[in-house]
């Protein structure tokens, strides 16, 4: 290619960039108009509309035919555009399990984009509390891992909260061993969240079997401690390594290459139907013969697919359990309505935790 051809192409790129910028500005001005219309109708409108954002991203994927850019790249770009335009309307606050550098924070940015204010919390319980008392409009918490199952702290918090799940996020998890030193043999203890220890169990047993393992509230907290304590390492991601100025001693130490954590978005709003939804329920499990069979039969009877079921101690009576269930469909769909009515004849507690758009996969 000649220098002349290259110059022409660069001129064309500059022209396209000018058009893109003008269109983004036009979109932001339309977002301001939307805000004016909403404030004219109600005093405290919601500007995070998960059903609308899910629809936009599905349209992006649908339009992406024969593109050189993969769906993931284009949805990331549009997510950031939506985030910037949402901030023109109102700068929303999102709580997450802190400190900075956690996978929870990464999940927040993946879902909401970067044009938000984040509120780090010390524990998962604190994330719920920040949203409940109004210090944050939304919260993001891990709910299950593809290899280790449910996150018990999160499930237990749903028993008493009035918050609703209004979105979900899938985040691939790649763990690293981080430390101030580059000499792995000098490490005497490792900090990590207990789920991360479980996800890296085989690697740790094979490579660092005699090193003390200490569980902390988050992997970012583990990285923070490792940055201040000699002879200490942490299990965390590359983002935490950058924030806390740590060396990556070993990368991808998770035992399963497809290790993924599912996060949910907490809020006070109910999400409208999108046509591609998921509903989460909390059910009591009567301690009598056939109770689980009859509960599951309510979904079979109404031809509803169940994507998850998990039991937890009720904390009311010894050896008494409750169930957390995910099903396909929205609480406003007739089959789901009918299933809820059937469940109410079988058990004392049927709590709707939220209906929300299914994550794009």
Automatic annotation (TrEMBL):
Residues 280-357 form the ACT domain. The keyword Lyase applies. Keywords: Amino-acid biosynthesis, Aromatic amino acid biosynthesis, Cytoplasm, Isomerase, Lyase, Multifunctional enzyme, Phenylalanine biosynthesis. Pathway: Metabolic intermediate biosynthesis; prephenate biosynthesis; prephenate from chorismate: step 1/1; Amino-acid biosynthesis; L-phenylalanine biosynthesis; phenylpyruvate from prephenate: step 1/1. GO terms for cellular component: cytoplasm. InterPro entries: ACT-like_dom_sf (IPR045865), ACT_dom (IPR002912), Chor_mutase/pphenate_deHydtase (IPR008242), Chorismate_II_sf (IPR036263), CM_dom_sf (IPR036979), CM_II_prokaryot (IPR002701), Preph_deHydtase (IPR001086), Preph_deHydtase_CS (IPR018528). It is found in: Cytoplasm. Its main location: cytoplasm. Residues 93-268 form the Prephenate dehydratase domain. Residues 1-93 form the Chorismate mutase domain. The record marks 261 as: Essential for prephenate dehydratase activity. NCBIfam families: PRK11898.1. Catalyzes the Claisen rearrangement of chorismate to prephenate and the decarboxylation/dehydration of prephenate to phenylpyruvate. This is Bifunctional chorismate mutase/prephenate dehydratase. It comes from Beggiatoa alba B18LD.
């Amino acid at each position: 290619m000649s220098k002349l051809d290259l110059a022409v192409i660069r001129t064309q790129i500059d022209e396209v960039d000018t058009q893109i910028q003008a269109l983004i500005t036009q979109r932001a001005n339309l977002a301001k108009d939307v805000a004016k219309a909403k404030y004219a109708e109600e005093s405290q409108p919601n500007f995070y509309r998960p059903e609308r954002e899910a629809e936009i991203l599905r349209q992006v994927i649908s339009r992406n035919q024969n593109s050189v850019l993969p769906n993931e790249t284009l949805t990331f770009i549009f997510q950031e555009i939506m985030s910037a335009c949402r901030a023109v309307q109102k700068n929303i606050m999102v709580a997450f399990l802190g400190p900075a550098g956690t996978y929870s924070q990464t999940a927040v940015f993946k879902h909401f984009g970067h044009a938000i204010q984040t509120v780090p919390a010390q524990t998962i319980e604190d994330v719920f509390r920040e949203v409940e008392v109004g210090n944050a409009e939304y919260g993001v918490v891990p709910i299950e891992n593809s290899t280790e199952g449910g996150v018990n702290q999160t499930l237990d918090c749903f028993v008493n909260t009035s918050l609703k799940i209004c979105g979900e996020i899938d985040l691939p998890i790649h763990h690293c061993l981080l430390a101030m030193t580059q000499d792995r043999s000098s490490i005497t203890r490792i900090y990590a969240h207990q789920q991360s220890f479980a996800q890296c169990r085989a690697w740790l047993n094979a490579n660092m079997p005699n090193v003390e393992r200490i569980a902390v509230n988050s992997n970012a907290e583990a990285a923070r401690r490792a940055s201040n304590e000699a002879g200490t390492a942490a299990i965390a991601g590359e983002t935490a390594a950058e924030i806390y100025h740590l060396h990556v001693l070993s990368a991808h130490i998770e035992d399963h290459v497809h290790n993924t954590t599912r996060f949910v978005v907490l809020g006070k709003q109910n999400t409208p139907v999108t046509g591609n939804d998921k509903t989460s329920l909390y059910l009591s499990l009567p301690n009598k013969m056939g109770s689980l069979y009859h509960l599951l039969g309510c979904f079979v009877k109404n031809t509803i697919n169940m994507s998850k079921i998990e039991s937890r101690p009720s904390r009311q009576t010894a050896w008494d359990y409750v169930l957390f269930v995910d099903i396909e469909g929205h609480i406003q769909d007739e089959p789901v309505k009918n299933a809820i009515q059937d469940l109410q004849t079988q058990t004392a507690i049927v709590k709707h935790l939220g209906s929300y758009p299914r994550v794009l996969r």
